[in-house]
Structure formats: structure tokens, C-alpha cells
Amino acid sequence: TTLRVHVSVECSVTCTLISRAGCSVDRINWNPRRLVTGSSEGIGKAYAHELASRGMNLILVSKGDTLLKKTAESIAHQFGVEVIPIVVDFSANREIYHKIWSQIKDKEIGILINNVGVMYHYPQLFLEVPEERLWQLINVNISATTMRGAIVMMSSASCINITPQLTVYAGTKKYVDYFVQALQYEYRDSGVIFQSLVPLYVATRMTHFSATLSNPNLLIPSASVYARHAITTLGFSNRTTGYWPHSLMLWLLTMLPSTLWMWCATHLNNGLRRQRRRGNSGSITDTP
């Protein structure tokens, strides 16, 4: 594991240097459209902006009719690209996939950015998580990921080792990471690129429960900063944090024995729980 993360560090730094030299995702001959899930805000929205800034047409899939349509109109107006919004709630039943397919079946899609996800409202012990939230975690983080070009799946660094108080979330993200790595091997000769992103904390609406995590900095980037870095790794690295400071941090963290990792995670999450209890709370229900 340590060796893999060490390689990921090198890939992240190398990809950053390569992208600065002008060799990035816009140089690759992808098909016309990019489909981004969980794209009405957060990392998904930031990814959509990065793709649109490169002149790429988009299909945005997310819940929240008003917010999604506002995002689609804003991106289309700002970048002069075609943006098609599809409103679905991924925590609902499988009928949503018929709705999505009916609207994209005649469209050629080159890249899928599967960013939709659900996190805990804040770090919690397993028995403290409401049953409805557990099913949302499973339905969105697992079911929605089992669906030519490139496929990017949003996992999490919490799945690298046992992470107390994020047990189900980390478990579902482990599924995503494993799933992508297996597909990458199975389809290694097909020309399809699979990428698993395993970032640490990114400052989005999902982290508004914490004053610490809500203020972007070098180690906790904003969604736009994260997406700007992560998109440059596509085609160069199949498994990466997507953000070189996170790769350095994860490399150091994986040097720790599992028991020390769990102690550090518990100490951090206890602190985040205290922040939540002091009133640093927000509404956290949808995408990263």
C-alpha cells in the first residue's frame, strides 16, 4: 500500500508539471460530450466548469431541479457550450436509470465523471447513523457506480485504511475504489480509461459542519481548486488523490501502523464532532 501511494505521489506531481506544460485532458481526442453526476454544486460543479472551459459539451445529472438548471444555464452562458441538465435523485429506486438512458441513448459520451455521493452529516459512530442515511450511503455510493472513453469515480482517502466514525461511508468508498481498479484491469486492452480519485477533505457543502474544514487552504482545497488539479491527472494516473498536497499527506499517513492511523482518525473526528456540537453546523445532504 505504501509503495502504491508513493507512486501516486509521483504521478500527481508529474501530472501537475505536465499539465502546466499544456499537455492535459483537452489535448486528448475524446468523444463530443462529457457526463457529470452530482454536478449542481461542489466538486461535480467545479469539474463541469473545468470541462466547459476547455470547450467541451456537457450532460449534467443531479437532483434539485432549480439549482441544476441554474448551474447548466450559467455554464452554457459563460463558456458557450451545450449543457443538458437531467434531474434525478440517485437515492431513489432503479427507475432513475431508465430516465437517464432515455435522454442520453442517442448521444455519444466520451467521459463520465461519477461524482454523486452521500456522506455522514458529521463523523458518527455506526449505531448513531440514522437507518435512512445508511441506505442513502449504500444506494448512492454503491448502486450508482455500478453502470468508451474515460470513467472517473469519486472515492475517498478514508477507504485506504480503517477510519472510525466514518465506517459505512469509508466502506462504500472502498467498494468504489476496488470496483474501478478491477475494471481498469479487466478492460486494460479496450482503450477505456478508468480512474479512481481518493482525496482527503475538500471544502464543500458536505464539510460545512466544521469551521476548520469549511475554510479552504493548501491542505483543504476548495472544490474549484481540487477539480482544476484532478482533471489534469486524467489519462496519466488511474488511481490518485487528484491533488498533490493530498498525495504527500496520504503518503505520510500510510507510513503509520493501522492502530496509529485509527487513533489519529478518531482524534480528528472527535474534534470535528465537538465543532458540530458547538454549533458549526450546516445542511449536508448531497454531493461532495
Word description of this protein:
The protein is of the alpha/beta class. The protein has a single domain, classed as Rossmann fold (3-Layer(aba) Sandwich). The protein is 45% helix and 12% strand. It has a seven-stranded parallel beta sheet with strand order 3-2-1-4-5-6-7, sandwiched between helices. Helix 2 runs parallel beside helix 3, helix 2 crosses helix 8 and helix 5 runs parallel beside helix 6. The radius of gyration is 18 Å and the shape is globular. Keywords: Mitochondrion, NADP, Oxidoreductase.
Report the end-to-end length measured between terminal Cα atoms. 25 Å
Order of helices and strands, N to C?
HEHEHEHEHEHEHHEHH
Q: CATH superfamily name? A: NAD(P)-binding Rossmann-like Domain
Roughly what percent helix? Answer: 40-55%
The CATH architecture comes to: 3-Layer(aba) Sandwich
What is the average of the pLDDT values?
78
Highest CATH level, the class: Alpha Beta
As for the CATH topology, it is Rossmann fold
Sheet with most strands: 7 strands, parallel
- Helix count from the secondary structure assignment: 10
Number of domains as seen in the coordinates: 1
**Structural class, from helix and strand content?**
alpha/beta
Beta fraction of the residues? 5-15%
> What global shape is seen?
globular
- Uncertain spans, ≥5 residues at pLDDT below 50? 122-127, 134-147, 280-288
The spatial strand order of the largest sheet comes to: 3-2-1-4-5-6-7
Rg over CA atoms: 18 Å
* Strand count: 7
